[in-house]
Amino acid sequence: MQVRQILDIKGTVLYTIAPDKKLSEAIAIMSEQDVGSLVCFEGGRMVGMLTFREVMRALHGHGAAWGGLTIREVMHTNPRTADPFMDVDQLRALMVSEHMRYLPVMDGYTLLGVISFHDVAKAVLEEQNFENRMLKAYIRDWPDGLEPGKEA
Fold this sequence. Notes:
- The protein has a 4-stranded mixed beta sheet.
- By secondary structure, the protein is an alpha+beta fold.
- 45% of the residues lie in helices and 20% in strands.
- The protein contains 6 helices and 6 strands.
- The longest helix has 24 residues.
């Protein structure tokens, strides 16, 4: 399975924000849309990523003054990205080794979507369930008179 197939399962709804917006606006969007990340765009290019982790760090580090912060002040700049043709095993290894819960998927300078670790787990589970159903159907339709592992 490739990253592009996970996006097909997930869908390609994108949530973005400009880096000059206030952190409070980002939190409102993330809460209303029930998402854990926003991709930061400026001048038509991705310049960063805001996730729940950066929000929590900003709240912890700035106390009551967090409301005046801009996205640019707290976003993760130059985030790692996935290629749409990356294999799911490579994707999982990257996300685990880099402690990433969200990974933007880029085709050149075009944002195709954001993959969460939850999306990866769901896609892998669906793939395994499909394979299990196919194997069970194959076993149920085993020809009479033949035993598994023996030739006719």
